[in-house]
Write a structure and sequence with these properties.
The chain has helices spanning about 25-35, 55-60, 75-90, 105-125, 140-150, 165-170, 175-180, 195-200, 215-220, 240-255, and strands at about 5-10, 40, 65-70, 95, 130-135, 160-165, 185-190, 230. By secondary structure, the protein is of the alpha/beta class. The relative contact order is 0.14. The model has no long low-confidence stretch (mean pLDDT about 95).
């Protein structure tokens, strides 16, 4: 297995924004490239004022690993815009999260599973792949949320983007979860967290190797599966984004030889 290593640009959010805006993107991409990453994951809006996203990424020798969207309040035109951006950048992965929405109810999971199936069919026709990104909410109550999503969607249309930290926060072993769902996992979010962050279900500010997630065990669990992208996702940082992502990249090189 020789995955490409990407980075989620949420770490570069500032001034009340979760992600860098399009006028900040070229500078952020320079930092990403300088740290030895292969690509980035972000929102469609990050490319809002950029006329040629493919040229920008190509000039920075980077790829678009994937686009991330929330299911709550999602409109069809937003999906079409994301698929169009993936097509323009020769990219393939469209990630969704929060199928349970604020209520985290079975009704919401069923509704959004049906929506994911429809989007997955459309994406497949356009050469893209829909993946569902888990948080801790889907892993509690005997993994009820993920069970609904996986049962009510087809593997050919909806894959799993496994988030290591949130699996742990939901009370499961990331390595065991990956083994049990290996055939459906198509994308990986590498995220670490401390015991305190996990207990509070907080979005973490912890670099890889500085929390309690066992990434070596996770990597072993994935050895028989070809995953195109391993994406580092650190929601917050107590350092600068560049400093944190340098620590994360060094960890992957030294511990996993990635």
């Amino acid at each position: 297995m020789n995955p490409k290593i990407g980075v989620e640009l949420i770490t570069w959010g500032r001034d009340g924004k979760f992600y860098p805006e399009s006028d900040q993107l070229p500078k952020v991409l320079d930092e990403v490239l300088s740290l030895g990453y292969d690509g980035v994951e972000t929102l469609v809006d990050a490319f809002g004022d950029i006329s040629d996203p493919k040229e920008l990424l190509s000039n920075k020798s980077l790829s678009l690993a994937g686009l991330h969207m929330l299911l709550e309040g999602l409109r069809e035109k937003q999906v079409d815009a994301a698929l169009d951006l993936l097509r323009k950048t020769d990219s393939h992965y469209l990630l969704f999260s929060f199928a349970g929405e604020k209520e985290n109810t079975e009704e919401k999971y069923l509704k959004n599973a049906r929506r994911l199936e429809r989007i997955g069919k459309k994406a497949t026709r356009q050469g893209a792949r829909v993946c569902y990104h888990n948080h801790w909410q889907e892993l509690i109550n005997d993994m009820n949320g993920m069970k609904i999503i996986c049962t009510e969607t087809s593997p050919e249309y909806v894959s799993i983007a496994a988030d290591t930290y949130w699996i742990e926060a939901g009370g499961s072993s990331p390595a065991e979860y990956i083994k049990e769902n290996l055939d459906r996992i198509a994308y990986l979010h590498l995220k670490d967290g401390t015991e305190e962050e996990l207990k509070k279900h907080e979005f973490p500010a912890t670099e890889l190797g500085q929390g309690i997630v066992d990434f070596e065990e996770i990597y072993e669990a994935l050895r028989s599966r070809e995953i195109e992208w391993f994406v580092v996702e650190q929601d917050y940082t107590k350092r600068t984004p560049k400093e944190s992502m340098a620590i994360n990249r060094k960890y992957l090189k030294e511990k996993l030889r990635l």
